[in-house]
Backbone:
């Protein structure tokens, strides 16, 4: 996300960094670049204007211009002001709510409400809550069915009354939740335009019937300048308590997010970052700002890694590395772990310093290639996986045939695995504590990927993944 | 109802604000006494803001603003200057590719999630049927829950045939079947609905490549047309989407949906300017008739219509 924005802002800072003294003209030139970057990121032009004015006021201060590190000072000002725009609110649901808590999802067509309902259900279930979902979208063809299929997949109960009255369906779900002991009701609504009076009235009626404590406005991260208008209108007519920003796994720069938060004044509660029902995260303004400025989002990465790996596995892996017992079997598990963490690009984007590597954008990791590597390892016998030394020419031919790859690919995997083992062993001897343990894998990845030019020769899982 | 009425109907609220603001800007600049003078800085800035807030994008806005600022005015009105500049941007796009008379004509509908691909197919099938064709729709979105059911309902409404597969089936094989079956049943054109995918996901974009390959095996030159569906509320990310989908799937034209909101769909100008892709259709409502062929001339007229 925000990649291009961070690249541009960083280019600006790179040019500032070398300066011993800044002149007002230099600051002005940098501000112009930042302004263009923000506009291209779809930040509302009024927000941009106010933002640039505030940064200018602070940056032109003589203390900044004369300081020994003016570039860093300006960077800090930009960071502070960005954080101020997002507000200090952490994401999530409102803290106080009656039981059962009612969460109402609303927004424009195609913003991702139904998908978000299922993801939110999963998120709540992970917090040991018992959510019940209901769809009130009787307009879009097959919308009811979509939620019920998603409910099955995510293992969340869906209330499916025969009534086709949206208000009745929502109210019925609340009664159902009370009688069956569900502690949260997620109400999905039909997508509607904020200028459609009839549908806005319907939304108001649903709201009055179920008295939600959380009204989440679901917004597409790729929305342009119109974002403020629609969010503002929903807020004025219905009232919203938070925003769910969806489709953040694309390359959207998310400027709309900034605008909605700063103009409409509601915090971002969650962000959606993938197609699986697990792909919903709490919103953390400081992490997003760090990522915008290319400082990486290590905290989110650690959380993802911990979720995917589990502490025991990490400790086992560490022990193996120490004793140099890392085998192809472990490598296969690693590959699977990485894939569990979500789309490769969103994982890579969280590693500090990687987001701004232009080479990385051109050499996108190929997920299909990971599947091929896994296939090669799966086509080996357990003995071969534990000791790759026994894999002779005839075995290689068999493995290639079994995995639908070529002998060359098998050769490459084996050669690079040997290399990788050597590198991992060095890291393993480096030791580590606490969170660092589960970070082992991304760290190795970071090292290999930080030098994309030498990727093929280097070890680490990334060295094995052919880039497009 | 013609394109212009439809657009104005759908766009009435859309355009109103931009028209009002544009009017404010040009009224002063087009005053008799002002016409001979160069355009002042405040006007240029106001115009710039207006275009940016319509999602026209930085590059296209700079071009329009530069043209307005630098041209010596010989009594020309600012309104006409802006309109002719935007029209020139649309005029420079690639002409619409014809199917070279291949039958059946295969059209692929692609785009990111939630832009309105399935709805567009339903409306497009209806539009083509009412012009005397016998379209067949193909439900190749085997990923999203209930996507096939959604298209089935649209096919019933438009009274056209549908070839469907079960959820989770290989989309390319469904496309192959649809082309075979379309040929056997004498159906033409064939409209293929694909799953929404973010343009940054390499593996999903690869799947699109495969659909193209398989379609080419089933019918010569297929797909003859690839339409990218864009949500009118999309911002500058629309450019990135168009670029990526063109690279992988060979997009030949754009469908701009949801123009009945307050978004101005200025991304159409940005795409014409930066990528030279033609806009083929626009969606202006939820009804089955709410898809109309795009006309750049009338779109520009509607955006900057004279209020008096």
Residues:
């Amino acid at each position: 996300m925000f990649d291009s924005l961070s690249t541009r802002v960083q280019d600006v800072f790179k040019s500032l960094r070398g300066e011993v003294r800044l002149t007002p003209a230099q600051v002005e030139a940098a501000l112009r670049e930042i302004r263009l970057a923000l506009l291209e990121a779809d930040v509302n032009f009024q927000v941009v204007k106010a933002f640039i004015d505030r940064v200018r006021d602070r940056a032109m201060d003589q203390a900044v211009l004369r300081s020994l590190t003016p570039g860093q000072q300006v960077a800090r000002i930009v960071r502070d002001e960005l954080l101020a725009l997002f507000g200090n609110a952490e994401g999530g649901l409102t803290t106080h709510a009656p039981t059962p808590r009612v969460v109402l999802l609303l927004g424009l067509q195609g913003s991702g409400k139904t998908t978000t309902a299922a993801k939110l259900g999963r998120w709540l279930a992970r917090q040991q809550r018992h959510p019940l979902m209901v769809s009130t979208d009787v307009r879009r063809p097959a919308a009811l069915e979509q939620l019920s299929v998603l409910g099955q997949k995510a293992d969340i109960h869906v209330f499916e009354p025969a009534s086709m009255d949206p208000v009745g369906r929502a109210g019925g779900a609340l009664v159902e939740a009370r009688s069956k002991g569900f502690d949260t009701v997620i109400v999905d609504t039909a997508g509607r335009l904020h200028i459609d009076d009839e549908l806005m009235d319907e939304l108001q009626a649903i709201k009055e019937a179920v008295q939600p404590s959380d009204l989440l406005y679901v917004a597409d991260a790729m929305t342009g300048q119109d974002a403020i208008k629609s969010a503002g209108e929903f807020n004025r007519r219905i009232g919203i308590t938070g925003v769910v920003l969806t489709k953040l796994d694309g390359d959207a720069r998310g400027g709309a997010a900034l605008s909605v938060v700063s103009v409409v004044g509601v915090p971002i509660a969650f962000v959606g970052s993938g197609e699986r029902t697990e792909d919903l995260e709490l919103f953390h303004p400081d992490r997003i700002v760090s990522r915008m400025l290319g400082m990486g989002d290590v905290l989110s990465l650690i959380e993802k890694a911990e979720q995917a790996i589990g502490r025991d596995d990490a400790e086992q892996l560490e022990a193996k590395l120490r004793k140099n017992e890392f085998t192809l079997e472990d490598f296969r598990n690693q590959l699977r772990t990485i894939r569990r963490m979500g789309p490769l690009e969103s994982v890579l984007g969280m590693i500090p310093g990687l987001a701004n590597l232009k080479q990385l954008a051109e050499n996108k990791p190929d997920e299909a290639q990971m599947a091929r590597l896994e296939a090669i390892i799966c086509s080996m016998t357990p003995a071969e996986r534990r000791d790759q030394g026994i894999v002779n020419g005839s075995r290689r031919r068999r493995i290639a045939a079994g995995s639908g790859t070529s002998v060359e690919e098998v050769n490459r995997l084996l050669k690079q695995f040997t290399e990788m083992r050597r590198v991992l062993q060095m890291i393993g001897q480096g030791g580590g504590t606490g969170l660092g343990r589960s970070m082992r894998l991304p760290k190795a990845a970071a090292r290999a990927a930080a030098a994309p030019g030498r990727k093929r020769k280097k070890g680490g899982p990334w060295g094995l993944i052919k880039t497009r | 109802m013609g394109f212009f009425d439809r657009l104005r109907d759908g766009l009435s609220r859309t355009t109103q604000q931009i028209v009002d603001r544009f009017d404010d800007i040009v009224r002063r600049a087009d005053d008799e006494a002002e016409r001979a003078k160069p355009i002042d800085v405040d006007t240029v800035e106001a115009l710039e803001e207006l275009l940016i807030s319509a999602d026209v994008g930085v590059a296209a806005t700079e071009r329009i603003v530069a043209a307005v600022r630098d041209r010596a005015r010989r009594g020309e009105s600012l309104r006409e200057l802006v309109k002719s500049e935007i029209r020139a941007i649309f005029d420079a796009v690639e002409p619409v590719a014809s199917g070279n008379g291949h039958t059946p004509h295969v059209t692929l509908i692609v785009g990111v999630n939630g832009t309105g691909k399935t709805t567009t197919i339903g409306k497009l099938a209806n539009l083509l049927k009412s012009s005397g064709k016998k379209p067949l729709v193909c439900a190749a979105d085997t990923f999203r829950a209930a996507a096939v059911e959604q298209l089935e309902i649209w096919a019933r409404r438009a009274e056209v045939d549908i070839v469907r597969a079960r959820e989770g089936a290989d989309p390319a094989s469904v496309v192959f079947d649809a082309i075979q079956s379309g040929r056997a049943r004498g159906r033409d054109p064939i409209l293929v609905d694909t799953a929404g995918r973010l343009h940054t996901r390499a593996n999903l974009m690869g799947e699109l490549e495969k659909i193209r390959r398989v379609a080419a095996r089933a019918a010569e030159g297929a797909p003859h047309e690839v339409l990218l569906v864009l949500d009118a509320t999309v911002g500058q990310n629309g450019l990135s989407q168009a670029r990526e989908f063109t690279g992988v799937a060979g997009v030949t034209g754009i469908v701009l949906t949801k123009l009945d909101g307050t978004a101005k769909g200025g991304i159409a100008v940005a795409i014409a300017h930066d990528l030279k892709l033609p806009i083929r259709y626009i969606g202006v409502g939820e009804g089955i008739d709410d898809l109309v062929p795009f006309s750049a001339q009338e779109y520009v007229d509607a955006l900057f219509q004279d209020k008096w």
Notes: Chain B touches chain A through 49 residues (CB under 8 Å). The longest strand of chain B covers residues 225-231. Strands of chain B lie at 106-110, 136-140, 161-163, 190-194, 225-231, 253-257, 279-283, 291-293.
